[in-house]
């Protein structure tokens, strides 16, 4: 990636709103490319979904669809960032083997060469869907903090703790208004506010970002050394007449096992601290842990966390990245759904290129642009709408008199 700091005597001032993985990666690559960046976060860096995710990465699992090139470019960037930032040591970057399994209370334990010894419960093996060549993991909170630390020390990113309240686009600049009356000016602004992106700034007439609540537990087994780096994509068939549930297991180098599970679409609360887990979903995750492995039964683990995070999702399940329609120099990067951690670095590079160069070369952003949600009205539709409106006005006029 070019560093155009030397060509540009007056670096572009860019305000990035939101300190999740998307905002932090965008700030990092913008600053690395020579922009003067201020990052605004209301609570803590990676305090929302970006600190609660499983942080599983896959090169190939989005193939055959519009997300394929974003996933592939970003998997590669995660590998190079891991070298640049000493990922294995500083944020637990490591390749994994990935399997599918299914299980139920009535399943009999099976011996299979593909199952690691710690997966000794009522489990039916599926198949190997990822190898150490194409699947990996990171510790998310630590990753986001490492990237931001580098952005601050090496590239001068300023971090401000404040609530973004409004963005005004002017002739040649943007003005970001924050709580307490503060104002931050810039040449461009990037909104990376996760599920709060459309809600906060009243942008929901242009596009909508929803919030899906996903639950997670982190269990520390007494015998942590027995747990090998095998990610499990499980399908659980509860004994009662309930549909299947799909919990994912990600053992981490910190000798604990992260398990995430059921998701449900919810009203977006005012701030991340108000996202609470549902006790039944947490209990279900702990129960399936004990079914999968005798090392993960209640008696054999310490519970390190029970949480829920809001995954930012869109109507068509694709991220939104581009300039906001009708708001020059105001860009959006949100709605990354289930794969936001994987997509973080390539989204950051793409947004930095778009803001500073006018187009992204790392991935084609065409199918992610926010204009896809703008309702297009043809001339004949416009004439019909105008006729209906006139008729209503006429009826109202008669009623009034
Ligand atoms: C349980 C769970 C497991 C997941 N597992 C994986 C996985 O294994 N792999 C993967 O690739 N992805 C995974 N994801 C998805 C991934 O976590 C998300 O897509 C990603 O974190 C979204 O990042 P973001 O930066 O867009 O949003 P967020 O992390 O929500 O960040 C938005 C930030 O904006 C801030 N903010 C909001 N409003 C304001 C305001 N007005 N002023 C200032 N700041 C504001 C918030 O405080 C927050 O810090 C998972 C998600 C969940 C919930």
UniProtKB/TrEMBL annotation:
Keyword vocabulary terms for this entry: Oxidoreductase
An annotated Gene Ontology molecular function: oxidoreductase activity
InterPro entries per record: FAD-dep_OxRdtase (IPR006076), FAD/NAD-bd_sf (IPR036188)
Keyword NADP: no
Record domain FAD dependent oxidoreductase: where: 13-354
Cleaved signal peptide residues: none
Gene Ontology CC annotations of this record: cytoplasm
Top-level taxon of origin: Eukaryota
Coiled-coil segments: none
PANTHER family: OXIDOREDUCTASE TDA3-RELATED, SARCOSINE DEHYDROGENASE-RELATED
Record's protein name: FAD dependent oxidoreductase domain-containing protein
Organism: Ambrosia artemisiifolia (Common ragweed)
